[in-house]
Protein 1
Amino acid sequence: MCPDCEDFARTVLLLGQLALYADMAGADLDFVDAVSTSLAVSLPEPPGMFPDDQDHDPDGGRPASPGDV
């Protein structure tokens, strides 16, 4: 598994485990709020989801609208 794929999968797994913990009786919801926010922010971009910016032309070289040149 590529390093980016592994990081993404590990972070998603941790978020899932945290969600299960939050549903348990007696769970520390302040902890859940703090950690879930941190994990969500650190969630890497899904591998292969978006092309590299330097080689990507979203319009395929065409103008954005017929009137644009």
Note: The helical segments are 3-22, 29-42.
Protein 2
Amino acid sequence: MKFPTQVIVHAVKESKGEYNGKPFSSCTFHCEVDLKENNAGRSIGRVTRPFKLGDASEFDKWAHLGGSLPITADAVFELEAAKEDGSKLVLLEIKPVARAGQKAATPA
């Protein structure tokens, strides 16, 4: 199941290189999420969670926004079944919209 939503991106990280003779390349978006309470106690606030998308070249599309982070972005996620009775969110698309806390510019 795919669904669009807006997220706040706090950081973007590229990873590329070689490990045991095998090349790797990825891009990780650190998006804001609610901090869930658990049996150990209460919580307040928000944290970031990493979501991988594409390869290291994805970073180049965001590098110019470094001074603007955190930034609001339009994202598309897919909800997938995970082991046992769990589920997993997979980032499929992401596009910057506006600096977090600011409204996006409206076309004239």
Note: Strands lie at 2-19, 22-34, 46-52, 71-81, 87-99.
